[in-house]
Amino acid sequence: MKKRPFSKILIANRGEIAIRVIRACKELGIRTVAVYSEADIDALHVRHAHEAVLIGPPAPLESYLNIEKLLNAAKKTGAEAIHPGYGFLSENADFAEAVRAAGLVFIGPSAEAIRIMGDKAESKIRMKAAGVPTVPGAEGIETLAEFEAAAEVIGYPVLVKAAAGGGGKGMRVVWKKDELAEGIESARREALNAFGDETLLVEKYLPTARHIEFQVFGDQQGHITHLHERECSVQRRHQKVIEETPSPLLDEELRQRMGAAAVAAAKAVNYTNAGTVEFIVDPETREFYFLEMNTRLQVEHPITELVLGIDLVQWQIRVAADEAFPYSADDFCARGHAIEARLYAEDP
Fold first, then answer.
1. Cβ proximity of 212 and 288 under 8 Å
2. What secondary structure letter does DSSP report for 134?
3. How far apart are CA 110 and CA 321, in angstroms?
4. Using CB atoms within 10 A of its CB, is residue 300 exposed (0-12), middle (13-18) or buried (19+)?
């Protein structure tokens, strides 16, 4: 790389991910701007950045989720690009559009890709069209009679889940027909509270399925590849607890098939930058199905970095500056094994 991709980047986030992006920027010789709420005036990310801008009261809606304040902070400090981190506005298509409309670079995928993949029903339709295996199910249905008909075709147990969902919200496992109405009502209520959208879909529930995701990466020249897998089958309330790579389940043949499907999924929405395509795998048949795509950097990205020897955040920045991504999956051979664990502050 002959020159710095950008001279200054604003990080629209806080905590660990802000520190992670600051580290990548410093290694690339890029100045950083932190943003903080009144509650985070003494936070570590504020001290580590070259500059820091107060953006409002402690409530996230008035600070970290306020698009206008974030854009004003970027303009005020002369930042050329914004890295959204994960969480907050990282998968908000309106934010990605607003950043680009303001003449800044959004370090992530296009607003269109975020919007399509953020809608579970729409993304599943796109995946079917792209030949990516999807879980047997039905989208675009509303009435109890439609759900009952679909469940009969799919076969119980089924999973009723929010079309706009994520993080395990708005999901209910239904084991038999007389539980379906209650499951739909409960999922709708939670989906509306969590996402402001009560649209649901129904899928076959696979009780023994393994959860495996593939890191994908695309540049603005149209090159899209995968960077191997992470397994996240150990979960609590649909939240990942243990992430590991390589997956103990995959052999090279299955890895090749799933990797090709992950790339096909990303190509279906002309994906750029870092993303993750998630699958569930039936361990008995070894068939796999598309689950969803996270259109951002994952919390668990460091375990991929550890075994492949690549800095994903630096490449996010370089690709956003129109640099070509020079690697393909075949360029990497996993060295060793890496595990990441979520710690819960709760009384089990």
1. yes
2. B
3. 14
4. buried
Whole-angstrom distance, CA of residue 144 vs CA of residue 160: 12
Q: Which of 100, 296, 318, 335 is catalytic?
A: 296
How many CB atoms neighbour CB 146 within 10 A? 13
- The answer, yes or no, to whether residue 191 has pLDDT greater than 70, is yes
C-alpha–C-alpha distance, residues 112 and 271, integer Å: 9
In angstroms, rounded to a whole number, what is the distance separating the alpha carbons of residues 229 and 247? 7
Q: Is the pLDDT of residue 2 over 60?
A: no
Predicted confidence (pLDDT) per residue in 33-42, tens digit: 999 999 999 9
Query: Burial level of 49, CB count in 10 A (0-12/13-18/19+)?
Result: buried
- Residue 195 and residue 207 in contact, taking contact as beta carbons nearer than 8 Å: no
Q: Both tokens of residue 169? A: 């919200």
In 3-state terms, what secondary structure has residue 167?
A: coil
- Count CB atoms within 10 A of the CB of residue 268: 20
Output the six-digit token pair for 259: 């990797």
Q: Do 317 and 6 form a contact (C-beta atoms < 8 A)? A: yes
Instruction: Tell how strand 239-245 and strand 224-236 pair up.
Output: antiparallel
Active site residue 296: yes
